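Handout, page 2. Input:
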Amino acid sequence: MPRKRVTIRDHSAEANLFARRAVIALIFAAIMLSMVVSNLHYLQVTRYDDYQTRSNGNRIKILPVAPNRGLIYDRNGTLLAENRAVYTLEIIPEQVKKLDDTLARLADLLSIDEDDITEFHKELKRHRRFKPVALLNNMPHDQVALFEAHRYQFPGVSVEARLSRFYPYADILTHVLGYVGRITRKDLQKLDEAGLSATYAATHDIGKLGIEKYHEEKLHGDVGYQEVEVNSQGRIIRTLSFTPPTPGQDIVLNIDIRLQQEAHRILAGKRGSVVMLDNRTGGVLALYSNPSYDPNLFVHGISSKNYRKLLSDPDNPLFNRATQGQYPPASTIKPLLALIGLDEGVVTPQTRVFDRGTYQLNNVEHVWRDYIPWGHGWVDMSRAIEVSCDTFFYDLAYRLGIDRISDAMREFGFGDFTGVDLYEESDANMPSRGWKKARYNQPWYIGDTISVGIGQSYWTATPLQLAQAISTLVNHGSRYIPQIIKGQLIEGEVVDEPAKELPPMTIKHADNWEVILDAMRNVVSSTHGTAHKAFKDATYTSGGKTGTAQVVGIAQGEEYDAEKLAEHLRDNAMYVGFAPANHPQITIAVALENAGGGGSNAAPVAKLMMDKYFQLQQQDDEAKFATLPDVIKPMAGK
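Output:
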């Protein structure tokens, strides 16, 4: 068996090898340590300010705080739009072990719709799991109480309160106030384009219609901020500082809610509108469109069912008839046409026309009829306005021509926006040769002009335009832009906004203003006046003009019979007026769709509104008198 070979180890060589390796390792470690130290110096010293800022940016957050929306009052201090506490059912997902089971039990307890559950799941995807997500909005008190009684069964679920818009008068003011609604992506895009994204960072709602939209800048306020410290997961640890938001400005309207309520009562069951203006300032005292709807439905997001119901309603409650309704003005414009005739020298107060019930031009087959088949006989200008003689105004329109009519009526504001502080307004249509050519590519015919003479043909106007035009007439040419807002409430005092005046309308002979107004007074005071029956028991004096606007044309030789026409094809009833007769304070315009004659239907509505105005004026005066010191009352009574 071979012997095993013995190897002798060289310890000196091994020691030298180890020493060389140790030196190399030490040098390498020294190099690495120097790199660490160098990098640490770079981070802690050279870039200290930069990384300190970044650290604070991750640790400290600036969170926006939404301001409370400004309140809205009527002219007497009655609250019209307020902020009320609403209750929201919120869930913090990470605190709920079995979310689907919790949702099922909540749905059973609170009768939650499947749509709400679906919407919750959509919102859940947009939020972090440690942040609350709303399941129910605007919970009624009984539902809140029911949940609180079972709250111990639902960890991670709570009811939270916040302020939200509420309209106590509901549908009575919808077309004036409008409403606020949730900010949509479209709203955010507009805000971003306007550079207002940061202002609305914490805001849930924005004005969608009416005064809420038009005066959004005043009502919204300025956003506040809170500086908070958060951990690495984004949870708030503590609040470092707080800058409170500036609440929106409280505003006061010219609207008198008592007049609005009266209009709501009078127009119940009717389609139409009422506009009442203060002649002295252009302030809008009442603006009501019927039917209406409850704006509170939109504040928290209207359901698809309710919205479809409003859209499918044949009476179109979403439509503001007072500012958007385009109606033939009918005979309400006869006083204005008479003024133009006087100013142009085409007629005088003594000009007479014989009305046999028809009007016909030489060599023209078409016959234009008066609303009374047998006519009015001989009528002068004042009598023609008083009894609303169509034949007189057919002839006047023919003699004036469409060019002079159109130009003068535009000075009264027809065919243009009134400038009222609502975005929901139509300019309607004041026809002209150029308009017809552009619209229909047809020439203007004499027959078109004759129909314009009684406020028909292509001529349309809104009730607000009519009220503004009559106010200009009453004020002898002074013109005001209708204003719904009266002023701002600052430290308990109303700071009025100045009346907005337009360039005055001038005529060649100033006496003609009163000639026309006298004729309108006769419409009410004379036993033959078309509004006499409606106002015969009034305790004040007034003037006005009735109108009956055809909705559908009647063929030559046929007679109008409302009973044979579908309801939506019957005549509209119109009325414009002012009161008191000699020193007018108010102007009113009434439009009733498919109601029939203006004298028998629209004039009584105007009379009831005027009754209410003077009744309230007397009550307010008596209330002010009662607050005077006894030593002053005898002098005040005089």
